[in-house]
DNA sequence: CAGCATGTTTGAAG
DNA sequence: GCTTCAAACATGCT
């Protein structure tokens, strides 16, 4: 479930589990998941140890004991990590596995094969080439404002665009817009300074809240829109009860914006 | 079976 | 160059 908060949790997980253990072996089930050819990946990683991490938006970079060997991970729509003892069965969908000399393995879980792993030699070069913007937790109000005002489009797709700010995905953008009380289809050029400030604060609120709850959306505060969304892992006694705005009770409306399913409160989020 | 899905890239058209 | 829209990627779940 990898938007920025999940990837941050994965980063912490990898950092806590997988550093300073020489990589003995690497198994790749499907070469399509690689952005670096397997022989090169193997040769560069064999014998190396992970030494640290850096996350930018939804991208996770893992440093090794060789400065120019940096692993890049992108978790697509359903990626995950699993660190497990070698004596245990390989987790389901662990299509790439790092075998450490510690007798533990790190599995890169990718059920839908939208995930990617490869090498980069320099993080900033990679970010620049991919035009990835400032991380959602590092961006300043003036940077975010400048980015948004440089575009002429609907606010939702602009916030989803990783060039604007890195790390926001479909569901988090809906939450940000809800918290900021901005309609997903309002055009960027019509946003007031007050709305831009509200969006900035909402980005921080939503990201920090999600990370604090270890990215388990179901534990979000009661006044978050996320509860109106259907989550297969969040069983509610009364499914209808959560289809109303947690602030005003108006039925949550669903529409398509920028080609993505969008939830919003037609009463709280009006185009100014 | 049909429809939908947390992401990114690419290409066409205006 | 920019925006918009659709499709493609590959698979799982409801």
In short:
The chain is of the alpha+beta class. It has helices at residues 4-17, 38-45, 123-129, 141-149, 155-160, 170-180, 193-212, and strands at residues 23-28, 50-56, 59-64, 70-74, 80-85, 94-100, 104-109, 116-120, 253-257, 260-264. A four-stranded antiparallel sheet has the order 1-6-7-5, with helices on one face. A four-stranded antiparallel sheet has the order 2-3-4-8, with helices on one face. It has a two-stranded antiparallel sheet with strand order 9-10.
Write the layout of secondary structure elements.
Blueprint: H1 4-17, E1 23-28, H2 38-45, E2 50-56, E3 59-64, E4 70-74, E5 80-85, E6 94-100, E7 104-109, E8 116-120, H3 123-129, H4 141-149, H5 155-160, H6 170-180, H7 193-212, E9 253-257, E10 260-264
Antiparallel strand pairs: 1-6, 2-3, 3-4, 4-8, 5-7, 6-7, 9-10
Helix pairs in contact: 1-7, 6-7
The structure holds a DNA duplex (14 and 14 nucleotides).
Overall description:
This protein has 272 residues and is an alpha+beta fold. It has seven helices and ten strands. It has a four-stranded antiparallel beta sheet with strand order 1-6-7-5, covered by helices on one side. The protein has a four-stranded antiparallel beta sheet with strand order 2-3-4-8, with helices on one face. Strand 2 and strand 3 form a beta hairpin. Helix 1 packs parallel to helix 7 and helix 6 packs across helix 7. The structure holds a DNA duplex (14 and 14 nucleotides).
């Amino acid at each position: 479930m990898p938007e920025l908060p999940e990837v941050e949790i994965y980063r912490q997980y990898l950092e806590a589990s997988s550093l300073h253990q020489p990589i003995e072996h690497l198994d790749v089930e499907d070469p399509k998941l690689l952005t670096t050819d397997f022989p090169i990946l193997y040769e560069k990683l064999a014998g190396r140890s992970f030494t640290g991490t850096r996350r930018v938006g939804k991208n996770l970079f893992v440093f090794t004991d060789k400065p120019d060997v940096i692993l890049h991970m992108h978790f697509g729509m359903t990626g995950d990590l699993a660190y497990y003892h070698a004596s245990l069965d390989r987790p389901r969908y662990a299509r790439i596995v790092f075998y450490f000399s510690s007798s533990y393995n790190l599995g890169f879980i990718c059920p839908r094969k939208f995930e990617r792993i490869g090498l980069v030699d320099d993080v900033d070069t990679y970010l620049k080439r991919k035009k990835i913007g400032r991380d959602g937790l590092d961006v300043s109000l003036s940077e975010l404002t400048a980015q948004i005002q440089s575009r002429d489009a609907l606010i939702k797709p602009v916030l989803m665009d990783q060039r604007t700010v890195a790390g926001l995905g479909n569901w988090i953008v809906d939450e940000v817009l809800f918290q900021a009380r901005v309609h997903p289809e309002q055009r960027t050029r019509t946003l007031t300074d007050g709305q831009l400030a509200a969006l900035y604060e909402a980005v921080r609120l939503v990201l920090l809240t999600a990370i604090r709850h270890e990215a388990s959306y179901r534990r979000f505060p009661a006044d978050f829109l996320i509860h109106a969304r259907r989550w297969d892992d969040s069983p509610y006694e009364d499914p209808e009860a959560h289809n109303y705005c947690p602030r005003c009770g108006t039925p949550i409306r669903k529409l398509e914006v920028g080609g993505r399913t969008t939830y919003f409160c037609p009463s709280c989020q009006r185009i100014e």
